[in-house]
Amino acid sequence: xxxxxxxxLLSALAAAPMAHADTVSDALAAASEAYAAGDxxxxxxxxxxxxxxxxxxxxxxxxxxxxxxxxxxxxxxNTDMAAGLSMMGGGAGAEASYSTPDGSTITLxxxxxxxxxxxxxxxxxxxxxxAMMGKTxxxxxxxxxxxxxxxxxxxxxxxLVQANGGTPEQVIALLxxxxxxxxAAFDKP
Length: 189
Fold this sequence. Notes:
This protein is α+β, with helices and mostly antiparallel strands. 50% of the residues lie in helices and 24% in strands.
């Protein structure tokens, strides 16, 4: 890759978060103007635009903290995750599928600040409940519920991490590459 191509790529990557920030800022300014003019319908529409842009930005932040594909594996990202979450009460989400050399697939998901997280919080936020529901595995200091190879954990009471498919050893190795503290605080400075 030439130096000019690398600089263009770095410039595009650096500008990507700003595109979301501009969309959010523009929509919030338009909402404020519409509200001041008494146009509540336009105010609502602009707030929805800002909320969707924030969810897309947060989903990108989650995805960026997923591990790269291990040697010999491939990774495929679901870029439509944020749009689908708007129908499930909002929030942010990320999903990636990892194909292993033996042909199996592991799907890694993270959901933040939505109804899915709230519904699982009672179970995954309570170690005694987790132990009653299945086997627990500690990965990088985080307790995961392992229900027949389907792994789930709740981070900071707001981020639900799940991994399914492959062998338990493959899933544990993949999850072991994640910095769970960073994932829990994915959208915090």
